[in-house]
Specification:
12 helices, 3 domains, Elp3/MiaA/NifB-like_rSAM, ten-stranded mixed sheet, alpha/beta, 367 residues, EC 2.1.1.192, DNA polymerase, domain 1, disulfide bond, disordered N terminus, TIM Barrel, 4 iron, 4 sulfur cluster binding, rSAM_sf
Length: 367
């Protein structure tokens, strides 16, 4: 694939103090040494945070009391405070509104299924992609989240499952970067977060890379860059329509990188990783749900990705006051049928949390 220009991150302003989860193992040892402690204390701290899923210095009884307080204050500053939890689906879904150190609000959603437990994490507070049907996009971008703010969403969810907060104790198994924000617009911190999430303890949370999905609206250069990281995470592309004319409106970044450019980058990712790409398609009544668009979608995906693709049709979660609405079920079924008939695997995604402001950004907008 031809080298592509890089997508640069937003400024660092507003990010929290550096945290243990922002650092590599070498950086943690150096930071501990600068505080006058032996380097092995870094491994002890990391074992508690990543292995035992705790940031409470009182629980770190293998470290002298005076040292643990000093180390925790310097390297494990509080990052996220729960504003409120909302549960539904018989307790199998829990959405959390978090407040960061600077008052920024963000969300994550923990979902328990019979065969897995999935956490949907945010990578930014708000989003700058301005997709008009998305609650987060309507609010604009506040700031990027730090690596540690992303990782801490995962750590607290893993602890919640271990402690039985969603019923019987269980294990967090899957991570999807499909919450607030465009992950590839916060590229460096998202990649670092994926590494912390997937490295084995004491350097990470030990979740398989193959169980992590990174979503994007189609920042083609960053997709290529992510492929070159040689990780095994799944790529999900929020396409929403196969034609540039409509996509320029639904996903404004399409005016910079067209459908063909996005799908070419996705094919490069599939070739390098060996993993099938997910295409996300929010079905919107009378906007992108026409039969001819289903046929065109199948044709373009078959041309670009052959069998290395799966389409997730997503029933739209309308937001209050929005002009957008979900397609009727018969229209949805016909759309899925036509994509499958066109030779591309297509299913409807299971929707969760419709009664608790399920669309990303709704809870934060309510405050």
């Amino acid at each position: 694939m031809t080298a592509l220009p890089l997508v640069f991150d937003a400024p660092r302003r507003g990010l929290p103090p550096r945290h243990l989860a922002d650092m590599s193992a070498e950086e943690r040892r150096a930071a501990v040494t600068e505080l006058g402690e032996k380097p092995f204390r870094a491994n002890q701290l990391a074992h508690h945070y990543f292995g035992r899923l705790t940031a409470d210095p009182a629980a770190m009884t293998d470290i002298p009391a005076a040292s643990r307080t000093r180390l925790a204050e310097a390297l494990m500053p509080p990052l996220l405070t729960v504003v409120r939890h909302l549960a539904c689906d018989g307790g199998a879904t829990r959405k959390t509104l978090w407040r960061a150190h600077d008052g920024t609000l963000l969300e994550s959603v923990l979902m328990r299924y019979p065969d897995r437990v999935t956490l949907c994490v945010s990578s930014q507070a708000g989003c700058g992609m301005a997709c008009p049907f998305c609650a987060t996009g309507q609010g604009g971008l506040q700031r990027n989240l730090s690596t540690a703010e992303i990782v801490d969403q995962v750590r607290t969810a893993a602890a919640a499952m271990r402690d039985g907060d969603l019923g019987a104790p269980g294990r967090l198994s899957n991570i999807v970067f499909m919450g607030m924000g465009e992950p590839l617009a916060n590229y460096k911190r998202v990649v670092e977060a994926v590494r912390r999430i997937t490295e084995p303890a004491p350097n990470g949370l030990g979740i398989s890379q193959r169980s992590v999905t990174v979503s994007t609206v189609g920042l083609a250069p960053a997709i290529g860059k992510l492929a070159d990281e040689k990780m095994q995470v799944r790529l999900a592309v929020s396409l929403h329509t196969p034609d540039d004319e409509l996509r320029d409106t639904l996903v404004p970044v399409n005016t910079r990188w067209s459908v063909d450019e996005v799908l070419s980058a996705a094919r490069y990712y599939a070739d390098v990783s060996g993993r099938r790409v997910s295409i996300e398609y929010a079905l919107i009544r009378d906007v992108n749900d026409q039969p001819w668009r289903a046929d065109l979608l199948a044709r373009r995906l078959r041309e670009h990705l052959n069998q290395l693709v799966h389409v997730n049709v997503i029933p739209l979660n309308p937001t209050p006051g929005s002009q957008w609405d979900a397609s009727p079920k018969p229209v949805e079924r016909e759309f899925v049928r036509r994509v499958n008939a066109g030779g591309v695997a297509c299913t409807v995604r299971d929707t969760r949390g419709q009664e608790i402001a399920a669309a990303c950004g709704q809870l934060a907008a309510e405050g």
